Amino acid sequence: MQGTTVRRVGLVLVATALTGVAACTSQDSSDRPGRNDRAGRDRSPAALRSAERATEQAESARVESTTTMGSLMSMTAAGTLGWSDGITGTLTITYTGGTMADTMRRLGSTSMEARYLPDAYYARMGEKFADQAGGKHWIRYAYEDLEVLTGGSGGRLGDQMRSTTPNQSVKLLLSSGDVRKVGEESVRGRTATHWSGTVAAADVADAGLRKQLTEAGVTTETVDIWVDQRNLLVKKVEKARMATGLMTQTAHYTDYGVAVRAERPPQSDTGDFEDLMRKQSGTP
Fold first, then answer.
1. Which residues, other chains included, contact 187 with Cβ-Cβ below 8 Å and sequence gap of 6+?
2. Which helix (DSSP H) or strand (DSSP E) does residue 228 occupy?
3. Does the pLDDT of residue 14 top 70, yes or no?
4. Are 262 and 117 in contact (CB under 8 A)?
5. Residue 106 main-chain phi, psi, to 5 deg
6. For the whole prediction, is pTM greater than 0.85?
7. Helices (DSSP H) in the chain: which residue ranges?
8. 204 CB contacts (<8 Å, ≥6 apart)?
9. What would the pLDDT profile of 203-260 be if each residue is shown by its tens digit?
């Protein structure tokens, strides 16, 4: 029974963690009125608009990130992501702390491969999990299935997963009413301009996004980005204050335009999240 519980919790936590990779960078609000627009003027720096466009048009990049979500987890992710047609790419994710790391350790491995495709994302689990899941090494999470985890808001979260790109951090910053230029700094040996701002959930104009942030317990989010001389985002730090604690994500972006591959795992070695959950719960 304990093994079944661990596998079930593991399935849910893996899904939550993988969406966490994207959640910090997917609030698209560049075309929605923020506090500045409601005041009848737009103070958003033209440099940020240029950075948003240049980063979007680059269509792919190499990514390294660290994410902490309260006591739930801390993790690192590294790989390549593309966004020319939805989100695609492959990341190696390692859980370094929190409940998630403990659960994954009991499942046999704290590191896994994640593949993002336009319709779903896939997580490769360890041998121990496969032995307990009918020999399947891969779990498929259809974006629509996220509703199971998010109480009805899964559709929106699925949309966010599909639209996650580095330029979304710039878009989120542009919705801040207090965006400011911090100055010139060095990011891994490259000169970059540091911009910073704070977004309050109550001030987000889009009603759906505002509701989502509120339901998740997010009250405020700070966004810091670093833009190089090519107008490309090279680093971002997002911190969201939540009812359960602080969520922080730091990411570095390099090799814009890199070739991205994300092959769909063999069907014979893949279990569907919804089916596995049903089997774990004993539902026919």
1. 226, 228, 234, 235, 252
2. strand 220-228
3. no
4. yes
5. -70, -25
6. no
7. 2-23, 35-38, 46-58, 98-106, 127-131, 147-150, 154-163, 167-174, 207-215, 273-281
8. 27, 29, 32, 34, 175, 210, 213
9. 655 565 556 556 667 677 888 999 999 999 999 998 887 766 788 889 999 999 999 9
Q: Residue 32, class by beta-carbon neighbours within 10 Å (0-12 exposed, 13-18 middle, 19+ buried)?
A: middle
Helix axes 98-106, 2-23, angle to 10 degrees: 130
Length of the chain: 284
User: Three-class SS of residue 122?
Assistant: strand
Q: What is the DSSP string of 50-112?
A: HHHHHHHHH-EEEEEEEEEETTTEEEEEEEEEE-SSS-EEEEEEEEEEHHHHHHHHHTT-SEE
Summarised one tens digit per residue, pLDDT across range 128-159 is: 878 877 888 998 888 776 655 555 444 444 55
State the pLDDT at residue 206: 54
- The Cα 59–Cα 151 span in angstroms is 32
Q: Exposed/middle/buried for 163, CB within 10 Å: 0-12, 13-18, 19+?
A: middle
